[in-house]
Write a structure and sequence with these properties.
The complex is a heterodimer of chains A (296) and B (794). By secondary structure, chain A is α+β, with helices and mostly antiparallel strands. Chain A contains eleven helices and 13 strands. Chain A has a five-stranded antiparallel β-sheet with strand order 4-5-10-6-7. Chain A has a three-stranded parallel β-sheet with strand order 1-3-2, with helices on one face. In chain A, strand 2, helix 2 and strand 3 form a beta-alpha-beta unit. Chain A starts with a strand and ends with a helix. The longest helix of chain B is centred in the last third of the chain and has 28 residues. Chain B starts with 9 loop residues before the first strand and ends with a helix. The chains are: A alpha+beta (296), B alpha+beta (794). The interface between A and B is large, with 34 and 40 residues.
């Protein structure tokens, strides 16, 4: 195994062009496990640790450009307001030590359906900034996950950053594991309200071959909220609408039975999380609205 | 040359008196929490090789061919050994029955069975070379449960059994079977107003010690071998290792190295013989360290069990009878299965007085992973079932479950199903009373002015509920565990104690072969020596085979038995010292002849407190040394037909109250509190006692809600051999554990003490299950209980 240590982003792109089989390593929380278990024996390992700007982020007008290697602990600490869903998801990643090393770029590169960041990115709306010596492109998050542990990157591309839309409304993230910390997801759910566009977006983890959105559920809820004038009148979402939304989220799943849980349980739990996170976000939205009106 | 990282002597000097009853600090504690403690996996030797074991990828198969040529040709590889390379005719080992091949012989019987071993100059080279060994398997049908084990056309796991159990078992796929019959359960059932039946399943738990199996074998010039090893019982290992190597026992010198937990999982051999074989073959030191994945295949697990119970009771809450059948799955090799059967059967009724019982327990041979010793040892599985039954009967009678238990609680003098009277305090009702009287944790602790504190809720930081669907439940359980080896086993220990003056200060040296696996034995030995010999400075020598056997660090026995041996040796040293004193100073003071003399504070004093002389003046240049075996009262085997016999030497009792919060919609559980009351006879080190109780309680919580090795019933292959999918409780899963320690002396034991390590593991699990039942109203007949069992989605 050859160990490549590019000193700059340009060098990294050149190296990746020369050795498309090179496996990039940043925090190493996925790659090192695979190497230690001998599940993967890459010919080239490319350390991105010397490229400082991968651990930086910029808060723009509409979105946050999050460097691929920004550790989860920094997201929890500094981006709670802009990226509340991702910050909540970051809280659930493994242990403090791993949160200090791992970043969203690794989650995206591995593209495991169990990656904790995915549901939050899907719900918030994001684009992956992929780059090669041929140029830069932005891959919409919905098009990024192409199969079990597969993504839309070309062999010569590296993930430089992810552009996540800044929250314009409440966001939530829930994850079921069979213990209360340091646990891989049995299933997970992210939900974001986007009052600016009057839409709701979702993200489901570990309940299908890839991270997915519950599109039918989103469409149903968008229509129901619009129809009842909910965004304006701030009424409570009716239990029947919440239930219908939850059922559609559950129906969007295509889970398997495995050692972590049954398919039936995953479907059921996604439904419960969908209903609860909808309640939490909507009540929060109503609260904000009332506060805004009160101030006005 | 000594190996780096090999243990050195531990000196425990302090200004305090530091005798028994004090919470002296353990000498290894600071080293362990600061990462400086040398575990067996940290050892290093110049020029050493690394050993690697190739394990079977299938559970049951004939080995059609085995080709090691490519592995041998790998640069850096020094040796590859298979069954054919074993040096003597002794090619199997085992704790009681020698049925486990050192390396597979034409057949593998479980997933992960050792097939070949490799030694190379780098661990990665060894690993890759092992992967180049070509094994062709012809798969055989798998035996995975009682039905497939005893079907008319069942495949035999072991074809030619000649062990001493084969004559009394109903089928060759049954390792051992123990019926226990007392009174007439059938007739007594007629007196019952209610009869309650239940079928229960107990999952396969792993010891999951954090320090994986590891050791270093160093070939010696005399043709022998020095083995530095993490184990639970050096001399038991030695007896199994030496014949395979073709060496007399004195040529296999074993030294205990740093042990990172055991819990029963190090009673059987793991890499000991393999490392010695490779060291002798290559003439170089060989180190073997399992990784976590291999560790899951490298030791036996807790027996999974199916338990069927029937209890009857009269309207006023008195148990009439109990019938039960306990089927333990022993897996491919016997390990400790016969003794586990003995415990499960003899303790099957629990700490209750029931005169009419009909019990049957047995262990299967199967192609599942081998199962053997784990904390609680057969008593754990039974306790889970009988305590579920107690709640069921109480409910049927409309009685409070604690009151129902109190009515039926055993007392001193109660007869066990084996006919043996319990001849020391049995405060079962008192422990329940105490645990029930503890203040309850406040309700809805997650509520705060800033919204829900998810850390206090089921799901924790995973943020699954802010209180929705959360219901509190409370449950109680109590258990009984035997202490020490039972059924007529000669359960002794040996201690060598030496007292001498060093630089004008009296110093005691204690040498035993006791495996310190984290239980705190070395701390207690020093305390005993201080109490008995009145000397502050005590040195505990490393445990090795240069002194007689200490027996196993298991069965909650070491403080009792090796502690007893140290006490006994100290007493003999004291007699000798006083004898010398009388010789030298008897004429100086009449008290030498007339008074009861003690050693205290480095002086010889009368029982009236008068100082006669300094200890160093008695000793002068003489070292007083005693090495002596010590035994507890003998026990008897159980009758093979009726199960009658005085099989046990002592009992340990603990009771728990569990308070849980269950997210009833998601099936997630937060254990809020696990209060425990336990009788410890005498707390030699109160801090260690509480630590043991809290640790055992947490291990019981693990099997209640998360820990389980999942084996595919179709292939008998392990599905989750990693800490990603075998979940242990983290600190966020561990509740507060208030402990109420009761000290009712057992007059037969040293200082009146009771072995304490296992009892809390028994009652913790059923208490949690009872609390979850209380919260959800569900029956819950298996453990661990998983979210799908609580949400109807299993």
């Amino acid at each position: 195994m050859d160990f490549l240590r590019p000193a700059s982003w340009e060098e990294a792109l050149a190296a990746k062009a020369e050795h498309p089989a090179a496996v990039p390593i940043a925090g190493g929380t996925d790659v090192m496990v695979e190497i230690n278990f001998d599940h993967r024996r890459p010919e080239y390992l490319m350390d991105l640790g010397r490229i400082a700007d991968l651990t930086e982020w910029e808060v723009g007008a509409d979105s946050v450009r999050l460097g691929a290697s920004v550790p989860y602990s920094r997201i929890m600490e500094h981006l709670r307001t802009e990226l509340p869903g991702l910050a909540l998801a970051s809280h659930t990643v493994a242990s403090p030590q791993i949160r200090n090393r791992g970043g969203v770029g690794g989650n995206l590169g591995t593209a495991s359906p169990a990656g904790d960041a995915h549901p939050a990115l899907l719900a918030a709306g994001a684009e992956v900034e992929a780059e090669s010596v041929r140029g830069t492109r932005r891959i919409p998050i919905d098009a990024f996950y192409t199969g079990v542990k597969r993504n839309a990157l070309e062999p010569d591309e590296l993930i430089r950053a992810v552009h996540v839309r800044k929250a314009d409304g409440p966001q939530q993230f829930s994850k079921v594991g069979t213990r209360n910390a340091m646990v891989i997801a049995v299933c997970a759910f992210g939900l974001a309200l986007h009052p600016a566009t009057r839409t709701v977006r979702t993200g489901i983890g570990s309940a299908a071959p890839t991270p997915i959105r519950a599109t039918a559920a989103e469409e149903f809820l968008n229509a129901a909220l619009e129809e009842g004038g909910f965004w304006d009148n701030g009424k409570t979402v009716t239990p029947s609408a919440a239930k219908q939304f939850a059922d559609l989220c559950a129906a969007a799943c295509n889970p398997i039975d495995d050692v972590r849980g049954t398919a039936d349980y995953r479907r059921h739990a996604v439904g419960v999380m969908a209903r609860r996170t909808l309640t939490w976000t909507w009540e929060s939205y109503r609260g904000t609205r009332r506060a805004t009106e009160g101030a006005a | 040359m000594a190996a780096n990282g090999a243990p050195t002597t531990i000196t425990q000097g302090s200004q305090t008196r530091g005798g028994i009853g004090e919470s002296t600090l353990r000498p290894d504690g600071t080293l362990k929490v600061t990462g400086e403690f040398a575990y067996s996996s940290d050892m290093w030797h110049e020029d050493m090789l690394w050993g690697q074991i190739l394990r079977s990828t299938v559970a049951h198969a004939e080995i059609v061919s085995l080709d090691t040529s490519e592995a041998l040709a790998t640069p850096g590889v020094y040796a590859v050994m298979t069954y054919d390379d074993l040096p003597t005719d002794v090619r199997t080992y085992g704790l009681e029955i020698r049925d486990t091949p050192v390396l597979a012989h034409g057949k593998v019987r479980h997933h992960g069975e050792p097939v070949a071993v490799v030694a190379a100059d780098h661990p990665e080279t060894a690993r890759r070379a092992a992967a180049k060994i070509k094994v062709e398997y012809k798969e055989l049908p798998v035996v995975t449960d009682e039905a497939s084990a005893t079907a008319p056309d069942a495949v035999l796991v072991h074809e030619n059994r000649d062990d001493h159990h084969i004559s009394h078992v109903p089928h060759p796929n049954i390792v051992h079977r123990q019926p226990i019959v007392r009174g007439d359960a059938g007739a007594a059932a007629a007196r019952a107003d209610v009869i309650v039946r239940g079928d229960y399943y107990f999952g396969m738990q792993d010891q999951a010690f954090l320090g994986p199996e590891s050791g270093l074998a160093v070939p010696a010039e005399d043709g022998g071998v020095d083995l530095y090893i993490a184990t639970q019982w050096l001399h038991s290992d030695l007896k199994q290792i030496a014949p395979v190597l073709g060496l007399p026992e004195d040529k296999v010198r074993m030294t205990l190295s740093g042990v990172g937990g055991a819990f029963g999982g190090r009673e059987d051999l793991s890499m000991q013989i393999h490392a010695c074989l490779l060291a002798m073959r290559t003439g170089k030191p060989v180190k073997i360290v399992y990784n976590r994945f291999e560790s899951f295949f490298g030791h036996v697990h807790r027996h999974p069990a199916r338990l069927s119970y029937e209890h009857g009771a009269t309207r006023d809450g008195k148990l009439t009878h109990m019938k039960c059948r306990i089927v333990l799955d022993g897996g491919a090799y016997a390990s400790a299965s016969p003794a586990v059967v003995g415990n499960a059967s003899s303790l099957a009724v629990g700490p209750y007085a029931v005169d009419d019982v009909d019990i049957e327990a047995l262990a299967l041979y199967s192609n599942n992973p081998p199962c053997g010793a784990m904390r609680g040892f057969g008593a754990v599985q039974a306790c889970f079932a009988y305590e579920a039954q107690m709640d069921k009967v109480a409910k049927e009678l409309g009685m409070d479950p604690v009151e129902f238990r109190r009515i039926n609680a055993m007392e001193q003098g109660t007869l066990l199903p084996t006919g043996q009277p319990v001849d020391s305090p049995a405060p079962v009702a008192e422990l329940l009373r105490r645990v029930k009287a503890m203040p309850m944790p406040p309700e809805r602790q997650w509520e705060s002015s800033e919204g829900a504190d998810v850390r206090q809720l089921p799901g924790g930081l995973s943020n699954t509920t802010h209180g929705e669907g959360v219901v509190r439940g409370v449950g109680y359980a109590v258990g009984i565990k035997n202490v020490g080896f039972s059924e007529g086993f000669d359960d002794y220990s040996t201690a060598k104690v030496r007292l001498e003056a060093v630089g004008g200060v009296p110093v005691v040296t204690v040498h035993t072969a006791m495996a310190e696996v984290g239980q705190g034995g070395v701390t207690v030995h020093a305390q005993i020596a201080r109490t008995e010999l009145g000397v502050t400075q005590v040195t505990i020598q490393p445990a090795d085979t240069q002194v007689g056997s200490a027996g196993s660090t298991s069965a909650s026995r070491q403080t009792y038995v090796t502690g007893g041996a140290v006490k006994n040796a100290c007493e003999l040293v004291r007699e000798k010292v006083l004898e010398i004193g009388r010789r030298r100073f008897g004429s100086h003071h009449p008290a030498w002849a007339t008074a009861e003399l003690l050693l205290e504070g480095g002086k010889v004093v009368t029982d009236g407190g008068e100082v006669l002389t300094d200890l160093v003046d008695v000793l002068e240049d003489e070292a007083v040394e005693v090495e002596e075996e010590w035994r507890h009262r003998p026990t008897e085997p159980f009758d093979l037909r009726t199960g009658q016999g005085n099989g046990h030497v002592q009992y340990s009792f603990a009771a728990h109250r569990a308070v849980v919060e269950v997210d009833t919609e998601l099936g997630l559980v937060k254990v809020v509190e696990l209060a425990c009351a336990q009788d410890v006879g005498k707390a030699l080190n109160p801090l260690s006692v509480v630590g043991q109780i809290q640790g055992g309680t947490t291990q019981g919580l693990g099997i209640a809600i998360m820990e389980e090795i999942v084996v595919d019933p179709k292939t008998a292959k392990v599905q989750n051999p990693s800490f990603t999918d075998y979940l242990l409780p983290t600190i966020l899963d561990t509740p507060t554990i208030p402990v109420d320690v009761l000290e009712l002396a057992d007059d037969h034991a040293p200082y009146g003490l009771r072995g304490i390590g296992e009892a809390p593991t028994l009652s913790s699990t059923p208490a949690v299950l009872a609390a979850i039942r209380n919260a959800t109203g569900l029956t819950l007949d298996r453990t661990p209980v998983r979210p799908e069992h609580l949400t109807g989605t299993a």
